[in-house]
């Protein structure tokens, strides 16, 4: 008809090509011609069992139909009396709120609480209305793979772990039977092995001075010479450094009551002049590390300023562009080993179990080419001594005739040699020990 625009043919919805469509799944086209897809329980199911609407993804229909089918099973179980009636709705948002009010939340460090809170808000935008009992391993594995593709393995692993913490709390509260976020076979990123050279350390210090960030210069030096975490460096106070040259502080990550919580470390000789200058400037008290405005550093501002220092240093030394502040702690452990410190000594200095824990050992004891060279050069051909065999016969505590069983047990406490000989001879009374020849002789 002239003068009137022809009405466009409606676009096919995401459910039009699916047969059969799971119950309670709805679709609607928005004004911008995109499609909304969701699972919606009936009014009776909302009131009786606490179910809420759950958004689905129209671009991932296989995953969406799988989740809708799982939710339908939950409804059927609730109708059959398998699940507990809950008028309030045990959604993930409600569970996250319960976790924030729990003693477990108050025991977290402030930085951890900030990180968890930001992560949970991001998770709740997607899963907040979902029933906690509706999560399954296939659903969370699918979401992990989506996060992996879109945001990378670090964000994917981090978000799933935070979600696992909350769902684990739900398991303790009886909201869910088991935590579906555990054992998802997530890819564990390899530990960092970045170690700074002394030239790179000098470049970072020079860059901080060029930018007028004296506090950042001191923080880099403290982490480099003392091997402590960023949180402990920023929490350090001038009064923690005594006139006896010792630094006394409480570690941030050690468990309360642990022997490693309270630390007493000698100040490195090359760091001592910087500490004394700061002590004189602060007149004996106050935060050790200050920003350009003369106030204590906040973690976010500290990361921003360190990024500026790193970018400035990378102008003259490009490899520095991938350095993180935490790499200074690992570098301390590496150079301490090069200086002759034992694994136990370095673990005591860092306040961890890197000498016993395999993953910590990999993190703080990366491979050293110089160390491998020393090990290769340490191999020597044994030197024959005058009048003595190359491989002396195991000596007994006392030379006296004894039964062969006793002789071999004394010479080989672990029993492997005795077991081998006994199985070969298949007799018990095989002979006696001759102290002159050092052999077992027949009776």
Automatic annotation (TrEMBL):
<dbReference type="InterPro" id="IPR013762">
    <property type="entry name" value="Integrase-like_cat_sf"/>
</dbReference>
<dbReference type="InterPro" id="IPR011010">
    <property type="entry name" value="DNA_brk_join_enz"/>
</dbReference>
<dbReference type="InterPro" id="IPR002104">
    <property type="entry name" value="Integrase_catalytic"/>
</dbReference>
<feature type="domain" description="Tyr recombinase">
    <location>
        <begin position="191"/>
        <end position="380"/>
    </location>
</feature>
<comment type="similarity">
    <text>Belongs to the 'phage' integrase family.</text>
</comment>
<dbReference type="GO" id="GO:0006310">
    <property type="term" value="P:DNA recombination"/>
</dbReference>
<keyword id="KW-0238">DNA-binding</keyword>
<keyword id="KW-0229">DNA integration</keyword>
<protein>
    <submittedName>
        <fullName>Site-specific recombinase XerD</fullName>
    </submittedName>
</protein>
<dbReference type="InterPro" id="IPR050808">
    <property type="entry name" value="Phage_Integrase"/>
</dbReference>
<dbReference type="InterPro" id="IPR010998">
    <property type="entry name" value="Integrase_recombinase_N"/>
</dbReference>
<keyword id="KW-0233">DNA recombination</keyword>
<dbReference type="GO" id="GO:0015074">
    <property type="term" value="P:DNA integration"/>
</dbReference>
<dbReference type="GO" id="GO:0003677">
    <property type="term" value="F:DNA binding"/>
</dbReference>
<feature type="region of interest" description="Disordered">
    <location>
        <begin position="1"/>
        <end position="26"/>
    </location>
</feature>
């Amino acid at each position: 008809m002239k003068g009137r625009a022809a009405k466009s043919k409606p676009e096919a919805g995401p459910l039009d090509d699916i047969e059969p469509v799971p119950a309670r799944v709805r679709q609607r086209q928005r004004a911008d011609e995109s499609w909304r897809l969701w699972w919606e329980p009936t009014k009776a199911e909302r009131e009786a069992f606490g179910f809420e609407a759950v958004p689905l993804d129209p671009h991932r229909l296989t995953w969406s139909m799988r989740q809708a089918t799982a939710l339908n099973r939950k409804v059927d179980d609730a109708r059959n009396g398998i699940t507990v009636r809950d008028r309030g709705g045990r959604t993930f948002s409600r569970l996250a709120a319960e976790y924030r009010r729990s003693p477990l939340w108050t025991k977290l460090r402030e930085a951890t609480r900030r990180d968890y809170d930001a992560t949970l808000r991001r998770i709740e935008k997607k899963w907040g209305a979902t029933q906690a009992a509706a999560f399954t391993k296939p659903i969370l594995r699918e979401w992990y793979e989506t996060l992996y593709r879109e945001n990378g393995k670090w964000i994917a692993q981090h978000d799933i772990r935070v979600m696992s913490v909350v769902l684990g709390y739900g398991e303790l509260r009886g909201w869910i039977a088991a935590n579906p976020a555990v054992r998802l076979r997530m890819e564990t990123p390899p530990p960092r092995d970045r170690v700074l050279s002394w030239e790179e350390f000098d470049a970072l210090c020079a860059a901080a001075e060029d930018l007028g960030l004296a506090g950042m210069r001191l923080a880099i030096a403290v982490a480099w010479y003392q091997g402590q975490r960023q949180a402990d460096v920023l929490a350090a106070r001038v009064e923690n450094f005594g006139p006896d040259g010792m630094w006394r502080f409480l570690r941030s990550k050690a468990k309360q009551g642990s022997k490693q919580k309270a630390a007493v470390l000698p100040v490195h000789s090359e760091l001592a002049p910087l500490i004394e200058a700061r002590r004189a400037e602060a007149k004996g008290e106050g935060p050790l590390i200050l920003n350009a405005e003369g106030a204590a550093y906040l973690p976010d501002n500290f990361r921003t300023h360190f990024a500026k220092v790193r970018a400035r240093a990378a102008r003259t030394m490009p490899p520095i562009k991938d350095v993180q502040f935490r790499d200074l702690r690992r570098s301390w452990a590496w150079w301490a080993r090069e200086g002759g410190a034992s694994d136990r000594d370095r673990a005591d200095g860092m306040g961890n179990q890197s000498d016993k824990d395999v993953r910590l050992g990999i993190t703080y004891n990366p491979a050293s080419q110089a160390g491998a060279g020393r090990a290769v050069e340490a191999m020597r051909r044994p030197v024959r001594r005058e009048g003595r065999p190359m491989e002396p016969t195991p000596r007994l505590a006392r030379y006296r005739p004894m039964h062969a069983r006793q002789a071999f047990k004394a010479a080989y406490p672990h029993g492997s040699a005795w077991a081998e000989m006994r199985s070969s001879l298949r007799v018990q009374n095989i002979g006696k020990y001759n102290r002159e020849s050092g052999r077992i002789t027949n009776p």
